[in-house]
Each structure stands twice: as C-alpha cells, then as structure tokens.
UniProtKB/TrEMBL annotation, chains A, B:
Sites where the protein binds substrate: R234, D364
Alphabetically ordered keywords of this record: Acyltransferase, Amino-acid biosynthesis, Cytoplasm, Methionine biosynthesis, Transferase
Gene: metX
Pathway: Amino-acid biosynthesis; L-methionine biosynthesis via de novo pathway; O-acetyl-L-homoserine from L-homoserine: step 1/1
Chain segments carrying region Disordered: 1-24
NCBIfam families: homoserO_Ac_trn, PRK00175.1
Domain of life: Bacteria
Entry protein name: Homoserine O-acetyltransferase
GO cellular component: cytoplasm
SUPFAM superfamilies according to UniProt: alpha/beta-Hydrolases (SSF53474)
Family assignment from sequence similarity: Belongs to the AB hydrolase superfamily. MetX family.
Molecular function in Gene Ontology: homoserine O-acetyltransferase activity
Family annotation (InterPro entries): AB_hydrolase_1, AB_hydrolase_fold, HAT_MetX-like
Top-level EC class as recorded in UniProt: transferase
C-alpha cells in the first residue's frame, strides 16, 4: 500500500508511459442498439489511457467519469489547459498506480469532448445532432464502453471504478457484463436516481431550455451558445456537489469587499462570486445539449426496474468483488443509497465491502484530496491485485 | 388549549369579524430611514387583520410572512383565488384563535401585493421603481411594520410570529424593539443567512437576470415579464422547501405515463411535472424584481454582525418570551441554526423554550397540517395568554 500523499507522488520519475489520448471508430459494420429501441452507428469514442496493458491483459482498470467529466483523467485539458480531473488518484505512484495498471477512461456517449454526442455532426443531415440525437441511457454509455474494450482486445476488467454518474456506470457494468468485471468500485453513487436528484436535473434543463440562445437545441447551427442558461444550471448543480459545512468553512458570510455590502446585486458575498465563476468557466468547456442528454440518462437510471424493484435480483450470481464507498456529508447521493446497494449485494451473496468516509467535503470529495478515501481505495485495489497475481509497481529507488 | 384539528374548526360559527384587507399610507411627513443610508417615503403598507383589538390593545399578534408570501393569511387570494397561506393556523377556533387575538399580517416592504416595492410607481419618475428601488433589509421591513403598528395605535405586540424569512423578522423585532414584543415565535429560521442559502438565492437571481425579458429590471415599463427566469428561480427554491424523504414519499420515481418513459425531454416523472407547475403558477402571482430585492434582504440578514459576531449580545436584557421551533427534516434552515439562537438566548438569560418538531415535511412544514407543530404553538400561546389575563375564546356551544 502506497501511503505517499498523491499530490507529492514521484511524478517526475514515472517509469510507465504518460497518458495518451485516442479516438476509436466503432460499430462500422452494424449500428449499436440503444435502450430506447433506436440504433446509432458508427460511433466515435474518445478515450485516454495510461500505463501498459500486460501480456495477460488482466491489469485494465476502467475509470468512469461523472456528469460533466470527460476522458482527461490527466491533463492538460484541451479546452481549459488545466490538470485532469483525477490526477490526484490516477498516475505513477498514485492510488491507481499506472506503473501497475493499464487505466482507461472514455468520454461517455452523449458527451462533448470527442465521443459521439449531440454536438457532433449527424451524418444524415450534415448538421450537429442537437435534439435529434437519440435519448441515451447509462446502459447505452456502458455498451459503448464494452465495444471499446472489444476494440482494445480486453475481455475482462481488473476493475471498473467511478464516482457519481461514474458509480452508476460501474454498477451497470456489474449487472450487464458480470463476467467482464473482476471488481467494481462505485463511489458516491446509487442504483437509481432519486426524486430530489431528478428535480435538480430538471431545474438545470429548464434553465438551459429557457435561454433563447438555446434556440430549440439548434444553437450550434445558428452560431449561438446558451451561456446564461447553462451557467445557471451549473451553479445550481454545483451547490449540490458541496456540503453546507464545507461552504460555511470555505466562504461563510465573507464579503468580497470587507468594508461592507454594496446594497446592490453585484457579488457582495464570496460565495456568490465563486458560484458565478463556476458558471462562467463551465460554459466554456461544456455543451448545453450534452448536459440535457446526460442528465436525462441519469434520471432514467434504475437498476431495480427490470427486476420488479428488487435490486438484489440484478446482482444474482455475481462473482464480481465490490467496494462501495460513500461520503458522510454527501447529500446528493447520501450514504443511505450506498447502503441500499450493499444490502442488495449481501442479499445476492456477493462479496462486498463498504466504507463511509467521514468528511465535510460533500459529494465532490471523490475528486478532492481526501486521504481516508484514497487509503480505502488503495487498500482494496492492492489486496485484489496481490490475489490476482499482478506484480507490484516497481519500488521507488529513493 | 384547542385540540380541534384546524381544518375542521368551527369556521361557520365564527363570532369574530372575518378577515379584512387594508392599506395605510405612512411616512407622509418625513421619509423612512433605510439601513442602506437612503430614505423612502411616503410608503404604502398593505395588510390584513382578523379578530378584534381589545380595549387594552394587548391582544395583537403580528404574523410575518416568508419570502414569497403576502398579507393574505386568509383568502381568497386576489390573484390566485386560492385560500390564504396560513388559514390552517389563523382563524376562529384555530391555533391562533381570532376570537381571542387581533391578528395582523402586512405585505413586506419590497413586496408585490400592495406594499411599496419595485413593482410600484416611483413618484419621482412616474415609472415602476424596478432596479431603482432602494436595496432594503429585514431591518427595514420590520421598521415599516413598526410604523404600521404606530398607525394602528398598538404599542406592544402580544406576539410576533413567523416562519422562514418571517422568523428573521420576528428575531429582528425582538432585537430592534424589545419593549414592543411580549413574545416572539421564530419558526424554521435563523439569526443569519447561511452560505448555502445565499448560494441558492444567488442562483435564483441569476436565473431571473439571465432572462432577456427581465430587461435590466425594466420589464414592466416595456410590457414584458421574465417568466422563464422567475420560474427557474422558483423551481430551484421549491426543491429546498421540501425534504428528500417527502419528495420520495410523494413522487419517488413515479411516471406521468405508467407505461414507460418517453425517451425525450417532456416531463416523464411526476416530480418534473410538479416542479414545472410550481414554476408556472408562481410567475402569475409574483414579481421578479420583488424576488431580487427580498432575497437580497435575506442574504444581508445577520443579527450578530453588529455585535462582533456574538449573537447573545443582540438579546442582552430582553424581557421577551421566546418559543423557537424547528423541523427535523428542514435542510434549508436546519435545527442547528435554531439551536444556535436558543444558545444565544440562554446566554442572554432570556426566557426561551425550544421544540424541534419531528416531521419529514421539510422547511415548508410551517405551512402544512403538522399537528405536533400546531400543538406546540397553541400550548405556548395559551399559557402566555392566561398569564397575560387575556380572556379565553368563547366556548363552542355545540
């Protein structure tokens, strides 16, 4: 187990290859079947890999990203120039050690960073898909990932891991392709989207669709961008990613101008300025229609629905090893939802461990420097890797 | 103590006069001083009364309304035609028994149902105030209420009571006019607006200001209404008024069309349809600029600010009797905030009782049929009324 804090890991001495970004064109012979009954194809999948696939092809970890994530686990991000979203976890010497594992992350179907989605051109019209893009599901996203693994010649994943919507994909993987997933780590997730979360998503969608620049979804063809609506959607969602204690700790009622309030509608409070910044920077990197389609996929997610509401049946006979992780201050995907997944896994006689990490960082803790979370993760992965006979990462010569 | 469930109270046999609606023009000789340093006047205050003021003028209860409330405790509401917002609590034979008390509720300063606010005409321009209206505070709202009481010849309130922003006004009353408030009942409130609540308010304001029909605040002069932005603001806020368990109980993942989802962006889930309805009906009765000004007043509210952050000092020497009430599932104004108020009152040696009502109804429980809350309220008021020598309400002859 690597106890080095990730941010201080021996990045400069990484023996494995750095991250590489790729695209694959899939479904060239026949289109992909969608849960809606429709078909889509060929499709493009943009993905990033880091590390080296071993000869047995047994060390692959699939990282599933969240709603507004992408495949840039490692940066620089092509739009923002910033570090990747999971650099703190994935890399040589880090929790998911790319000297030991071959790590893959693909931009989800419906995304806007290279994988087929509403921003891409519909070959039938020569115009961006927009609202003409088929409504997709978490199942469809995972089906596209399975096709990518076929393309890469990887039959079985050592592990599928992800937080938030990534956790939904991880659970979907375990249910749809149980024989292809040795271990599954759903973090801060659920087996179905709750009424409150559907409500928050709906508010975001209404904010986007209320923006005249959204233009019925045709803004790209018309050279417009629904910036204001998308920013409001992001600001609302962003509040749900944090916890009240974290907001209080970070901002409290601190003013932008310590001498006093302005008696106006400028950003008097630091928390207002922070939110506005979150909204403004988000619209530069994300597509409004992608936001609609991906939130809809989350809303539709319900693993128990096909089993008369009995979640345990979805996992019947599974051989996958599960490590379910939640965060104590996460009110978007509260621990109770992870517990329900664990109960169902127990009822299905699955091998499952469960950790609720105590933190005030809220839902976004899976993206942050949260040592107890990282320890849980590396403990689980290292134990599993030893059992699977994966050679340890090379010793740090220092 | 009246144990009759309010909804079944002997309304038809009410001995006291029914509710009457009034307006008063105040500050005709000199304008009202505002916390911003500005002045405003004359001002109009719209208010409703029910019951009869006794000869000693000692039985007056001031009801303070919440963000989107108004003075129509009793309906019919002039815009919606619906019952008043607190009919379940206020009326003959009800918890706040108008056969015993003279009950007053005024539309807050900055409101949009008759009291001076951004929708009213600015006499200096002959146009609606719009953003030219001065930014007001909870202190200003309460100052206007005090002027109204002067106008009515009421020196001391038997009780000031209100939920949410109403609780802010109640606490402000107790701090600004301690000698004029015999009892104070702040329900589901706080002594200052939290970072998370400022954040939610800011999202609502941004949604309104992002609507092109808001038109820099001048929509009224231009014959427009920022319906979409105001609806998004309302939908976001509405989620915060409920609890996750209540949303789950009421809606869960129930579909509008039980045969399945539409694979589209119509309201597939009942919770979406409910939210859209909340947004659409709100914009018919509320003014977007009022929403901006009133949320701003809430954000600015911090009773401890003038006392170096030590809330107890704000209550030093108070003789007011307090009954602080919170709801266990309220995450907008969680019990912890009421507890902090109670701690400060204890530290100031005030007489205070505190009840956390166990309910899954969330913040909005103060508006709903919540028997444990109503029992708490009538118990406190009846005890106080006996002590004060107010004659009991006439016996029900049946």
């Amino acid at each position: 187990m690597n106890d080095t804090p990730p941010a201080q890991g021996p990045l400069g001495r990484a023996p494995g290859p750095g991250p590489t970004n790729h695209t694959a064109t899939l479904c060239t012979r026949e289109p992909m079947r969608l849960d809606s009954g429709g078909e889509l194809g060929p499709i493009t999948v943009a993905y990033q890999t880091q590390g080296v696939l071993n000869a047995e092809r047994s060390n692959a970890i699939l990282v599933c990203h969240a709603l507004t994530g992408d495949h840039y686990m490692q940066g620089p991000h092509p739009v923002t120039g910033k570090p990747g979203w999971w650099e703190i976890v994935v890399g040589p010497g880090r929790v998911i050690d790319t000297r030991r594992y071959f790590v893959i992350c693909s931009n989800v179907l419906g995304g806007c960073l290279g994988t087929t989605g509403p921003r891409e051109i519909n070959p039938a019209t020569g115009q961006p898909w927009g609202l003409g893009f088929p409504v997709i599901t978490i199942g469809d996203m995972v089906r596209a990932q399975a096709l990518l693994l076929d393309h890469l010649g990887i039959d079985t994943l050592f592990c599928a891991i992800g937080g938030s919507m990534g956790a939904m994909q991880v659970l979907q993987w375990a249910v749809a392709y149980p024989e292809r997933v040795r271990a599954a780590v759903p973090i801060a997730g659920s087996w179905r989207h709750s009424a409150q979360n559907i409500a928050f998503n709906e508010v975001g969608r209404q904010a986007i669709m209320a923006d005249p620049d959204w233009s019925g979804g045709d803004y790209l063809s018309e050279g417009r961008v629904p910036r204001r609506g998308l920013a409001v959607a992001r600001m609302t969602a962003h509040i749900t990613y944090l916890s009240e204690p974290a907001l209080h700790r970070k901002f409290g009622r601190k003013l932008q101008n310590p001498t006093g309030v302005s008696y106006g509608f400028d950003a008097d409070f630091q928390v207002e300025s922070y939110l506005r910044h979150q909204g403004a920077s988000f619209v530069k990197r994300f597509d409004a229609n992608s936001y609609l389609f991906i939130t809809r996929a989350m809303d539709y997610f319900d693993l128990a629905a096909a089993h008369d509401g009995v979640l345990a049946r979805a996992f019947q006979g599974t051989k996958t090893r599960f490590c379910v992780i939640s965060f104590s201050s996460d009110w978007l995907f509260p621990t109770a939802e992870s517990r329900a997944v664990v109960r169902a896994l127990n009822a299905a006689a699955a091998r499952v461990s469960f950790v609720e990490v105590t933190t005030d960082k809220g839902h976004d803790a899976f993206l942050l420097d949260e040592p107890a979370f990282h320890d849980t993760l590396s403990g689980f992965l290292n134990g599993l890797a030893e059992q699977a006979g994966l050679p340890p990462a090379p010793e740090d010569p220092s």
